[in-house]
Amino acid sequence: MRKASVWKIAAALFIGCVYIWLFGVVQVVEVSANHEIQVSVDIPTVTTPDTQAPSSSTTLKLQDIYRPGFEDYIPETTVEVITTPEVTTEDNVIRPPEYTNQGTTPPPVTTTPLPETTTEAIPETTPAPETTTPVIPPPVFTPVPEWLETEVSGVRYVTESCYSRKKALLGAEVADSYSRGDKVTVTARTNTGYYKLSDGNFIHEDYLTENEIAQTTTTSGNSTPKPDSGTDALAGQVYVYHADKDEYFSCTMEELKAMASDDTLIGYDQYRMVTVENGKFVVTHTWDFNNPDYTYLYVVGSARELVIEAVVAEISDWYEEEAIKAQAICDYTYLRKKNIYGTIPPIHLVTYNYNRARVEKCVDAVLGLAVYYGDEMIQSTFTAATAGYTNSSYDVWGVYYPYLVSVDSSWEMKYDTFKKDGARFDSSYIKQRVSDVLGIELKGSPANWFSVKDTLEGTENGWVTSVAVGGKTTYTDANGVKRKITGRIIREQVLDFAIVSAAFTVGYDESTDELIFYIYGSGHGVGFSQFGAHIAAQDMGWTYDKILAHYFPGTEIR
Question: 20: part of which helix (H) or strand (E)?
C-alpha cells in the first residue's frame, strides 16, 4: 500500500514536470461582468540576431463591438494595448480565442513558445528617380458677353428725342443725342433691345423706326425755334405746357430735362399739335402724325397731376378702384424710368370731363410707388385687353424681359370686349397691300389667302405667331432680310393698324367679296391688361398689388 502510494506520487510529479516543460506558460483567463475579456500573458524571452526583447507581463483588453455574450461569434474586435513590450515581429500579436461552447467559463488558452527567428538583411535598392508632376494650368473661362449681336443693315429714323449709348445696356454711358426725324445707319441688333449704329454706339429700338418721319415746321411767319428740327433741337427752344399751372412757355431742351425729379415728370403729348402765331401758342388736336406742321407739345407737371390725367386717358374713371391704382403705378413707373435716363416719352393726357375726385383718391393712395425687378424699374407696358392671356415681349418686339412673359388672363374671355366684330376689307385692297408690303402675289379664291399656322401658347384664338399668306410664311423686307410673317406684321404693316390686335382669325364673305378679321383682345397684349385688371378686381376681389404681381411676375412694388 505504501509502495503503491510512492509510485503514484512519483508519477504525478513526473507528469507535472513534463507539462511544465512542454508548455512553459500558465494562463489565467478572467471574464469580466461586462463581457470584456482580459488575458494575462507571460511572454517568454525571444532572441533575434539584432534585438533582445525583455521578458515582461502584458495585459490586453479585448473589447467587442456590441458587447455580445459568449454564445456569439465575434468576427471583428478592437484591441486596446494598455502596456506594450517592445516587439519587433508580427508573430507576437496575441489574438483572441474563438469560443465554440456555451458554458459560463471559457476553456483555457494555451500558447506555443515562439521559435527563434532570423532577420534577413534587406538588400539596398536604387531609389526610383524623382518624377515631375506636370503643372496643369487652371481652366480658362470665357466671360459671358454682356449682349449678343445679330448683323443687320439699313437705315432707321429716330421717333423721339433720345440718346445713343456706348454700350447696349440700359443706363450705359451716353454717347450722343438725337432728335425726332434724325436718320441713322444700323449695322447690328442686340438681344438687349438695341440697334448698333455705324459709329459703334447703340440706340434702343423703342426710338427707331424704318419709316421716314417728316421734319417739323411752323405755320407762322415768325422764326420761332422748332423743338425737333434736326441737330439744333437741344440748343433751340421747345414748346411746353405746364399741367399744374395751365400755362404755356418755351425753354431749351436741357432746361426742360433738368426739371425732372421724383415729384415732377416730363413727357410729350403725341395727340396735340402746337404752333406759334403772332407770339401766341396755337394748340390743336390731331391724329395725323405725318402732318408736316406737326410739332410736339411737351408737358411738365407734378407727378400727381400728370399721373391723374394719364390714368384717365389710358384707362377710365369708371374702372374698379384697384385697377385704377394699378394703372397709376404703371404710368408713374413708365414716366419716371424714362426721365431718369434722360428721355422724354410720349404721354396721352385726358382731354374730357371725368370723375376727378374718384381718380384723385386712387392716385393719392399709391403716388410715388413704382414696379421694380431687382434694382431696376421695369418696362411697365400695358395693353387694353388680351386674347385670354397676355403676349410676351419677345414675341412682339424680339426682346426678352423675365417679367414680360405670357400669363393667364382668361377671365376676360366671358365678356363682350374679348372678341371684336370682324373688321372688313375689300379683297382688292388686301391683294394690293400684300403685294406692296410683302411682295406676294395672291391668286385664287380669297377664302384661301390667309391661314393662321401658329399662335402663342398654341391656343385656338391667340396671338398669331405665324400666318401663311398666299401659301407663304416668310417674306423679304426692303433691306433684303428674310422675315417670318406674324400677326404683328399683318396688323402693323399690311393693314396699317386698321385692326386693334394681332390675335385674329380670318374669314371671307363671298357675297360682298370681303375678308373679315375677327379680333381678340386689344393692343399689343404685353404686360398689364387694363380690362383684365378691372375684371380681376370686380369679380375676384384682387387688390392693385396682386394685380401687378400677376401681370409682371417676379416684380415688387416700392
Answer: helix 2-23
pLDDT in tens, 134-157: 554 544 444 556 788 888 888 998
- The torsion angles phi and psi of 506, rounded to 5 degrees, stand at -120, 130
In this structure, are residues 303 and 228 in contact, taking their beta carbons and an 8 Å threshold? no
pLDDT-derived band at 529, boundaries 50, 70, 90 = very high
149-209, CATH topology level: SH3 type barrels. (2.30.30)
Which amino acid type is present at position 271? Y
DSSP H or E segment with residue 164: strand 162-165
Q: Please tell me the pTM assigned to this model.
A: 0.58
Every domain of the chain with CATH number 2.30.30.40 lies at 149-209
Say whether pLDDT at 182 is over 80. yes
| Residue at 490: amino acid letter | I
Are the C-beta atoms of 346 and 382 separated by less than 8 Å?
no
Region of residue 462 (phi > 0: left; psi between -120 and 50: alpha; otherwise: beta): beta
Which sign does the torsion angle of CA 184, 188, 193, 197 carry? Answer: negative
CA distance 508 to 295: 42
CA distance 527 to 371: 12
